[in-house]
Specification:
About 70% of the residues lie in helices and about 0% in strands. The chain is built from eleven helices and no strands. The chain is mainly alpha-helical and about 270 residues long.
Length: about 270
């Protein structure tokens, strides 16, 4: 309510509320009075890195950096790998010329990338019923394990199954990360925290799109190793992160409800 009053003021707010009441076929209260709430407190980047939130901010930034590196790196890596028949560390030097993908390659790419849609649905379900922390740790562990399997060549079908699973795990972890970002920080610094963490995620994505393309044509081993290292970064950071935010009341100010998330953390650890 306070957020809405800050965003839309005075008569416009009341007019909008009356429309909502009418649309929902609910009688508008006769004694209703709308008071505009003015919040003069503004958060900044220093608040995001204050001791209370410093560890959380750094760890989530690490998780998001590694995960975004994988997500964006796959955008470059998958078309090349599928077109050139990548299969682990098989002794096959990558071609330096551009190949036109076949219809089969395009179909494989569509199937693999469709994993992101399924992962988002599963991530929402797990986030709601299980929590945020355990699924995040599970998916980052799976990402690390699956990336290690790319060093092995069994056959093209297994390689495509690994690609599908990696895409699934990265997308599921990504949606859980944004659950945490929105629920850990109070309203006054939520935008600042989102911007700070998103900066590191986008930096990982931007780095991946150029680096993976370059490393693949130097040696596919280097590209896969880079994926593995970033998956390891996300997994280690997820294991160090220890706050469960499921069912935690969202805060408006830094001072408000200081012990709520800490209480949730102790409940999870116990």
């Amino acid at each position: 309510k306070q957020w809405y009053q800050r965003r839309v003021r005075g008569g416009q707010a009341e007019e909008t509320l009356r429309w909502y009441f009418k649309w929902n076929k609910v009688q508008f209260p006769e004694q209703f009075k709308l008071k505009v709430y003015e919040n003069l407190e503004r958060g900044n980047m220093r608040d995001v890195l204050q001791p209370k939130y410093r560890k959380d901010t750094i760890l989530i930034s690490m998780i998001y950096f590694g995960n975004a590196f994988i997500c964006h790196g796959l955008i470059v890596f998958l078309p090349i790998a599928l077109t050139e028949g990548f299969c682990g560390m098989a002794p096959k030097k990558p071609r330096s010329d551009c190949l036109i993908p076949t219809q089969a390659d395009i179909m494989d790419y569509n199937i693999i990338t469709s994993a992101a849609v399924l992962a988002c649905i599963l991530g929402l379900i797990l986030g709601k019923h299980v929590g945020r922390l355990l699924p995040l740790r599970f998916f980052t562990f799976c990402l690390f394990s699956l990336m290690c399997l790319l060093f092995i060549c069994i056959n093209s079908l297994v390689t495509r199954a690994i690609f599908f699973s990696v895409k699934f795990g990265a997308a599921a972890a990504n949606i859980l990360i944004w659950f945490l970002i929105l629920e850990i920080y109070p309203t006054v610094i939520r935008n600042s925290a989102s911007g700070f963490i998103n900066f590191w995620g986008k930096s990982g994505g931007a780095l991946a799109t150029g680096l993976i393309y370059f490393l693949y044509y130097v040696n596919p081993f280097l590209a896969v190793t880079t994926f593995v290292l970033n998956a390891l970064l996300s997994f280690v950071a997820a294991m160090m992160f220890d706050k469960e935010t499921k069912d935690v009341t969202l805060l408006d100010t830094i001072e408000q409800g200081e012990d709520e998330i800490e209480g949730s953390k102790q409940t999870f650890l116990n």
